[in-house]
Write a structure and sequence with these properties.
Strand order of the largest sheet: 1-2-4-3-5-6-7-8
Oligomer: single chain
Structural class: alpha/beta
Shape: elongated
Strand content: 5-15%
């Protein structure tokens, strides 16, 4: 593989146009959100810098973004992650780093300080330089992955690597009020500029090989964003009852790694996902939502079936207690009906 871009050159990339998306007015910025005490953050930044120096680089892209790269193999995983999430993980390394290390892949991680949506000319410039130097062409397979605001970025910046695959979990298509005014969740982020370069994520995936949009259809805004991503190469994968943080839920279910492996191998299909999705049967939060919905609907027989299934497989005190209550109520009703 050819020599990678040196960190000092990358650190001063200018936002030149090279992806066919023309530059306009730079986006607004929002106030930085410090996800950890200053001493912890400095220690984390130093650790990331040392790790990057050993086999790649770790560079600053403006005030709220960093790029972390490890060069290992002709398969590249590109992840978009938040600094706060990374520092909260065991080992304080990006999730993508652990996935790539486990599989012997190279890894590029774009790290954001908060919900920036990566709307920063320095981030645009970073990807411009990668395109100009044919960085992505050095790899046989490339996968972009992210969730939420990071899912937006995974889709939007995949335009820099035509032929790549994309896994976007609960992605936002845009927060431009004229297009997504119905999404009131990230009020401050709606002030960002989503009309300039790399702006409208659904348009940026046209050159991707395969795009997988994972979302919870019961989260109305996420379902509406997901519907804006369409095309013959786009597969929508429904993940009901998991809420807005699909990345965390799927990680706990141990689905994220096989998802990435299947996408890289070109074997991720609806049937493959359906097999992985069976992991929800052992995921406590999913099962609790399922039970709560049955209770709210007054479907006692369904509650009973859920509790019987769960208690037969798992140590689940809440389900065991609910099952006992249902059975006790059935006995009481039977006795009442049999009384003279």
């Amino acid at each position: 593989m050819s020599e990678r871009l040196p960190p000092l050159i990358l650190a001063v990339v200018a936002p030149q146009a090279s992806t066919g998306v023309h530059p306009q007015t730079p986006p607004q910025t929002v106030t930085p959100i410090d996800a950890s005490p200053p001493d912890n953050r400095e220690a984390w930044l130093s650790m990331m810098d040392r790790t990057g120096e050993e086999a790649g680089y770790f560079i600053t892209l403006g005030a709220r973004h960093w790029a972390f790269f490890i060069d290992e193999a002709p398969t590249l995983l590109v992840t978009f992650e938040q600094a706060g999430d990374i520092m909260a993980r065991p080992g304080q390394m990006p999730l993508g780093h652990d996935i790539a290390k486990q599989n012997g892949w190279s890894h590029l991680c774009l790290i954001a300080d908060g919900d920036t949506f990566y709307r920063d000319p320095r981030v645009y410039g970073f990807f411009d330089r990668l395109v100009d130097d044919a960085f992505f062409e050095d790899f046989d397979s490339v996968l972009f992955m992210g969730s939420g605001a990071q899912g937006y970025a995974a889709a939007a910046f995949s335009v820099a690597a035509p032929g790549a695959s994309v896994i976007a979990m609960s992605p936002r298509a845009t927060l431009r009020p004229e297009t997504a005014g119905w999404d009131k969740r990230a009020v401050r982020s709606r002030k960002l500029d989503f009309t300039s370069r790399y702006g409208y994520a659904p348009d940026m995936i046209d050159g991707a090989k395969h795009v997988f949009i994972l979302y919870d259809p019961e989260v109305t805004e996420d379902a509406m964003h997901a519907a804006l991503f369409h095309g013959n190469h786009v597969t929508h994968l429904r993940c009901p009852r998991l809420g807005g943080r699909l990345d965390a839920a799927l990680a706990h279910m141990q689905i994220v790694v096989p998802l990435a492996q299947s996408a890289i191998a070109g074997t991720l299909t609806r049937n493959r996902f359906a097999r992985l999705w069976r992991g929800r049967r052992n995921f406590g939060p999913y099962l609790r939502v399922l039970l709560t919905q049955a209770q709210a609907a007054g479907r006692t027989e369904l509650e009973k079936m859920i509790c019987q299934n769960v208690t037969a497989r798992l140590n689940a005190p809440r389900f065991r207690k609910r099952l006992a209550d249902i059975l006790a109520a059935e006995v009481a009703e039977s006795l009442k009906e049999g009384a003279p």
